[in-house]
Amino acid sequence: MDTSNYVDIAIVGGGMTGAAMALALSDTGLSVCVIEPRPPASAEAGTPPDLRISSLNQANCDFLDRLGAFDAMDASRIHPFTRLAVWEDLAGTTLPGARSRWNRTIFDASEIKADRLGVMVENQVIQSALWSCFDDIDTLSCLTPARLERLTLGEDSVRLTLDCDGVPHDLEAGLVIGAEGARSAVREQAGISIDTRPYEHKAMIVNVQTAAPTLDMTWQAFTPSGPHALLPLFAPADQPDKAWASLIWYDAPARIDALQSLSFEALQTEIEQTFPDELPPIDHISGVGSFPLVRQHAERYVQDRVALIGDAAHVINPLAGQGVNLGFQDVEALSRVIHDALSEGRPWWRQHVLLEYAMKRKWANQLMMSTMDAFYHGFRHQGLPFKLVRNAGLALAGHAGFGRRRVMAYAMGLSHP
């Protein structure tokens, strides 16, 4: 083993989960190297929000705070939300007790004496804040720009062959953590198979500036063609009455492609005609993107000297914005297992030790995937019996005190579904 080019842990992928993993291991005394194709870009003051945003629940806000990263975020681009709503489109169906087109259930953090359910923030803001915490950690290094070309598993270490901006580089590590997303090279080269199930919808993200002050509610409206969602974002300091928001539109791939080809003016008209009337007036659109929907789950999360976290291990339907929250829960669980193994003198790189992380997180992630699938598929059935059942269920959730508290605690990441 070449000890001059050796680190205890190599984290392939320096996005939100990979960077959080590096910080979570910073007090172990282990040498850690983050390998990332591109360093994070900071959001410039006064610019529109990036299309890639995350809904951080309160539990993960607290986790990032413990890592020292939450206070490092640009506070002007963080927007708290205190309420969440689930709406169903009742158009074309007359349900008992229905007073409007929409059946609504709204949950408010104040009901459980909480200040907020979570925050909306751009991914680049989170990643930049995490990276800014790297500077004072002597045991942490970064290789960027760098890409993994080949992974060679050995008994005593793992050899990583990297492409560092066209220059070959070899690195050896005691443990490799794959955190580079759904197309994980670590997962592929470690020979870990995945179960992939595409959904029938595609999702379009539209960033809009509204002619209204910032909202405090995120909502999901279920329609026959697919869900529509509003995620409130920050308002510019010089225009407090012109808040940003992210709109999510699920629909058939051909429909999304057609919508995305429209001019911003024509797309704005389509949004105003299709989204609920409660949508704030739109001033203009600043950006549009889309992606296919897929569910993906690794056959296993760990083996000797390899562990997967975040999207490298699981990709979930983004219906409730739980992807990054699950990733941070992976980080917290894996770092705890490594900490405990170190304190007890156990080989933290061995599969039988890492399985403690895998057994806890794979079950929890599978449960969340199934829960989101139940929502996704359950709201697609448009027959009257299904609508009656859903209407009754939403009404019960909206009025049952214990049920409401459980839903809100779950939304904050304080309990499991």
TrEMBL record:
It comes from the Bacteria. It comes from Larsenimonas rhizosphaerae. InterPro entries: FAD-bd, FAD/NAD-bd_sf, UbiH/COQ6, UbiH/COQ6_monooxygenase. Pathway: Cofactor biosynthesis; ubiquinone biosynthesis. Gene3D superfamilies: FAD/NAD(P)-binding domain. Its cofactor is FAD. Pfam families: FAD_binding_3. This is FAD-dependent oxidoreductase. Belongs to the UbiH/COQ6 family. GO terms for molecular function: 3-demethoxyubiquinol 3-hydroxylase activity; FAD binding. The lineage of its organism: Bacteria, Pseudomonadati, Pseudomonadota, Gammaproteobacteria, Oceanospirillales. Component of the Ubi complex metabolon, which regroups five ubiquinone biosynthesis proteins (UbiE, UbiF, UbiG, UbiH and UbiI) and two accessory factors (UbiK and the lipid-binding protein UbiJ). Residues 7-363 form the FAD-binding domain. Keywords: FAD, Flavoprotein, Monooxygenase, Oxidoreductase.
